[in-house]
Design brief:
Elements (H helix, E strand, L loop, with lengths): L1 E3 L6 H14 L4 E4 L2 E3 L3 E3 L5 E3 H10 L10 E5 L4 E6 L2 E7 H7 L1 H17 L2 E4 L18 H7 L3 E6 L5 H10 L3 H6 E9 L7 H11 L3 E6 L12 H5 L9 E6 L4 E2 L5 H4 L3 E6 L10 E4 L1 E2 L2 H11 L1 H10 L4 E4 L1 H5 L3 E3 L10 E3 L6 E18 L13 E14 L6 E6 L2 E7 L1 E2 L5 E4 L8 H14 L13 H15 L2 H8 L5
Parallel strand pairs: 1-10, 2-9, 3-6, 10-11, 11-12, 13-15, 13-16, 16-18, 18-26, 19-21
Antiparallel strand pairs: 4-5, 6-7, 7-8, 14-17, 19-20, 21-22, 21-23, 23-24, 25-26
């Protein structure tokens, strides 16, 4: 089990690296995180919704992601509550206070899911959540020491040296744990190190002497490995994209932004992508993107209050193309109806009016993987009709177009054939909305779309950079971490003879 001294210490990426390393060493390995809190999620082949980090870890392990890998997913709402997803399906929406009365049974659910994985795989890499030393939550949490105890899993504790105070945080975490919990921690990993390790050695020696536990490695900071990130904290740390390409894309960073990894391929394909929160950051983009959001109604109000809505509408009126995905698509319509008050206390909210569509929320959430083909053939979709694409849907309610200018026709799901329209276009084909997450990960679609966008602005065609192959990136991560960690010692801690 990988635990951390704090959120964003590097638990997810370390678990991903170990999944790949163990797979490379010939083991059948699966990831597990009992409880995940994230707005970035994914839909499994069975239609269940799980956290994005476990999907990445499953890919690194070379296995198909399932709901057992993340049995409890919490998606924060605009208020102080969260939507609770259990084994892939929405169970209820609760306040933060009430959740801890509700989660007693969830520990049993998580433990059962973990046991199913342990019966199918030789190694399960468990990722903790936040810090195990949250003393106000220790008797109620279901993601750290209670899981470690129940499963008998040795724990490696990760600390982030880049933010400072790593030795105090490692020692302090141990001090706040019970004695039996300290015994479960078998070693430390220092993450995000910059510079020469030699001056750090005296501090490492002190830590090992003070705690009696080994430092199992110091992992250098990296920026050149492209692994999908789960938390929006990544956007705070994200370096400006300096792609030499000739397309400028402005992506609106909504307060409840979700699944922003939808747009990672654009940064590798001749596009400079900027995440903006203020009008002053807007620039003069060739394309504006409204991404997914957990709370479209609340984020619509944010767009208006911040002045971003005015900037978006002014540029759209002047001819700048706009694309919306999922919640962004819903916001682009004429209005959002919420008769059951699912997303907010408002039963009807005016949209941006960029598309002649109306969204109405319903109690049931749509979560499915889909195959589709392009049916639009105008504007940014010119010459693309008939192209096949893959993606997935995660949304509440349905959006209906009044003009029947759909973008895609859904043709199938893992459960069988399907036949329904998705998305909408304006008459010129410059304003587009769709429910399809992962759309720009389809190479043929993305390249044709960007080619049309360049032609629209009378820019020269560019092939862009070669898109990073996921398998290569996971191998690169594994090599980076393997060089830094004492892998034979980790196998010994796990009770495995690595020879």
């Amino acid at each position: 089990m990988i635990q951390g001294t704090a959120s964003s210490a590097g638990k997810s990426i370390m678990a991903t690296a170990l999944c790949r390393i163990f797979r490379q060493d010939g083991y059948r390995v699966a990831p597990f995180k009992s409880q995940n809190m994230a707005l970035n999620s994914f839909v499994t082949a069975g239609g269940g919704e799980i956290g994005r980090s476990q999907v990445v870890q499953a890919e690194a392990a070379g296995v198909v992601p399932t709901v057992d890998m993340n049995p409890v997913l919490l998606k924060p709402t605009a208020s102080t509550g969260c939507q609770v997803i259990v084994l892939g399906k929405v169970a209820r929406t609760v306040s933060a206070y009430d959740y801890y009365d509700y989660n007693t049974d969830l520990l049993k659910t998580a433990a059962a899911a973990l046991e199913r994985l342990r019966s199918d795989y030789e190694i399960v890499v468990i990722e903790g959540a936040g810090s195990p030393a949250e003393i106000n939550l220790k008797d109620r949490e279901i993601a750290n020491m209670r899981i470690a105890r129940a499963s008998g899993s040795p724990v490696l504790l990760v600390g982030d040296i880049d933010r400072g105070g790593v030795f105090a945080s490692l020692v302090g975490t141990l001090e706040l744990l019970d004695e039996d919990e300290r015994d479960i921690i078998k070693g430390f990993i220092i993450n995000k190190f910059r510079g020469d390790i030699e001056p750090l050695q005296p501090a490492i020696d002190f830590l090992e002497k003070r705690t009696g536990k080994p430092v199992l490695g110091v992992v250098p900071y990296f920026r050149d490995i492209r692994i999908a990130q789960e938390d929006s904290v990544y956007l705070d740390e994200r370096q400006p994209n300096t792609s030499p390409g000739n397309l400028e894309i402005t992506l609106i960073r909504l307060p409840h932004i979700s699944n922003y990894d939808d747009f990672d391929p654009l940064e590798e394909d001749g596009c400079s992508v900027s995440y903006v929160t203020r009008r002053s950051q807007f620039g003069n983009p060739h394309l504006i993107i409204l991404p997914g959001t957990k709370s479209p109604v609340v984020d619509l109000n944010y767009l208006r209050q911040s002045g971003l809505a005015e900037s978006i509408l002014a540029r759209a009126k002047a001819g700048t193309p706009v694309a919306g995905i999922c919640g962004g698509y819903q916001m682009m319509g004429q209005k959002i109806l919420d008769p059951l008050r699912i997303e907010s206390d408002e039963t009807e909210v005016a949209g941006l009016g960029l598309l002649n569509v109306v969204t109405e929320y319903a109690a049931e959430k749509s979560t499915r993987q889909v195959t589709a083909h392009v049916i639009a053939d105008t504007g940014l979709f010119a010459g693309m009709a008939g192209q096949d694409v893959n993606g997935y849907e995660i949304h509440m309610g349905q959006t209906r177009s009044k003009e029947k200018l759909s973008a895609f026709q859904i043709t199938g799901t893992p459960q069988g054939p399907a036949d329904y329209a998705d998305g909408a276009l304006n008459v010129r084909g410059t304003i587009m909305g769709t429910y399809l997450h992962g759309l720009f990960h389809n190479d043929s679609f993305r390249k044709a779309f960007l080619k049309n966008l360049r032609h629209y602005w009378e820019l020269p065609d560019e092939t862009g950079n070669a898109i990073s192959d996921k398998e290569d990136q996971y191998d690169k991560l594994a090599e980076h971490v393997r060089r830094s960690l004492k892998i034979p010692e980790i196998y010994r801690i796990m009770g495995i003879d690595s020879q």
